[in-house]
Amino acid sequence: MSGNISQDFSHQSLEQGGQVASQLPLVEELTPYPDVEQIFLEFAGDDSLLLLESARQTSSQGQFSYLMCNPLTRIQIQNTHYSADPFESFRDVYTKIFVESIPGLPPFQGGFAGLLSYELGQSWENFARASHDEFQLPDLAVGFYDWVIAWDHNQHRAWLIVQGFDQSLQTQDINLAAERLKSLKTRIDSSNFNQQDQLAALSQSAFLHANKLSLDQLSPVYPVERNEEILSNFSKTQFLNQIEKIIEYIYAGDIFQANFSQRLLSRSTGHPAELYLNLRSKNAAPFAGYFGWDDWAVVSASPERFLNVSHQEVETRPIKGTRRRKFMPEADLLTRDELRESEKDHAENVMIVDLLRNDLSRVCKPGSIRVPHLCEVETYETVQHLVSEVRGQLKPGKTVWDLLAASFPGGSITGAPKVRSMEIIAELEPTVRGPYCGSLFYAGLNGEFDSNILIRTFTVRNGWIQFPVGGGIIAQSHPRLEYEETLHKAAGMITALQK
């Protein structure tokens, strides 16, 4: 199985706008420069819509956004099991199809993309699931996307890219590609891009008429302090007691750290696309995303990259350490300095950096792993984070699927040592995490790969919105402060729930 190799286009040819070439893939620049929100609403009702958006474009990480839907094929794994290869059904296809990048365009130009839920980690580590799973989200939901709309926010340019694969993914066909490109371009050109009309159309969506769970069908829930419309899978007392247990595990020598979370819940009344627009306007993030699949959707304002692979170079950017933003500029600067100088947060971050170095070393060349940035403060709308960067070079013969097997789920949302932390999380958290702490990703036919960590994330299904929040627990953690930190992280998300 092989894909046709695209022509090596120069940047000069791209500057002309319009269609770039007659060979595959077909590319057409969209002019005038389209608004991501308008395009998103135009396609929000389509099958398996995936938007990977750099909504916070002032960030150095916020250059590209991608939208795709109606995949040629879909793969779903409901519940994985230990020693399974969740990528088996498309690993060979991905390896055998290679389509060279068109220079000057954003790196993702079509391929596999979708969701990896936290519990997919059971494929590689033998740990139990949490006891309650009332929403039944799949462990893996992935599509093969033959076309993508790609934005370069630095250049203020966007392109429609169509690969032209047939349904079997065996060959590319220029006539298929031309037909798809024409249909998509016609749809974009004919849309009136009226937000009110677009949201009204979504209000008739079958998504809003899906089965809704009653309160007594949920695992036990408790009102959240100072916000009784929000429910949690813990009472405050229970959450504090579980943190005490984690600290006991640390002093017993089981672990150094565990990432512990509470799942917050709110009733869902509108279409999740509207929730995404609220979230992106109030809590913009460089690794935001929306994924609508059947009767559920993932809505994320993630600030955290999980893994990026470009030309076999691997990058991961763990976040550990958080402070709530202050309204006064002087106080905000003091908060930043406090975070930077915090021994607890620094130790927590370095611990995860060491874990990720170990994970990457399983698939990267010896001596290639390095830490260009350690414990640097990054500022977002509602919080400040301590962020590091770890890099390495993949060994010859190793693929992104080997990298995921070695490192999923991300160490920043598990703890250290990783496996024992995951066992303790499953023991002490009563509900499965599902998409939370998993990843939205793309794996391009040109070998490019990128993914986020699904924090600051809503999952919508059965009439409810889930949005877990958590933090790293170490020996020096104070249970009450850790509880308050989870609510600080939830603040921007709770605001987004208010229409």
Automatic annotation (TrEMBL):
Domain called Anthranilate synthase component I N-terminal: residue spans: 37-159
Q: Does the keyword S-adenosyl-L-methionine apply?
A: no
- Superkingdom classification of source: Bacteria
Q: Which GO terms describe its molecular function?
A: 4-amino-4-deoxychorismate synthase activity
Q: What keywords is this UniProt entry annotated with?
A: Aminotransferase, Transferase
Q: Does the keyword Mitochondrion apply?
A: no
Its name, as the record gives it, is aminodeoxychorismate synthase
- Organism lineage string: Bacteria, Pseudomonadati, Planctomycetota, Planctomycetia, Planctomycetales
Pfam families per the UniProt record, alphabetical:
Anth_synt_I_N (PF04715), Chorismate_bind (PF00425)
Domain Chorismate-utilising enzyme C-terminal residues, every copy: 236-489
Q: Which InterPro entries match?
A: ADC_synth_comp_1, ADC_synthase, Anth_synth_I-like, Anth_synth_I_N, Chorismate_C
Q: Which GO terms describe its biological process?
A: folic acid-containing compound biosynthetic process; L-tryptophan biosynthetic process
UniProt gene name: pabB
The cross-references to Gene3D superfamilies, in alphabetical order and at most eight, read: Anthranilate synthase
From the UniProt record, list the coiled-coil ranges. Answer: none
Quote the EC number: 2.6.1.85
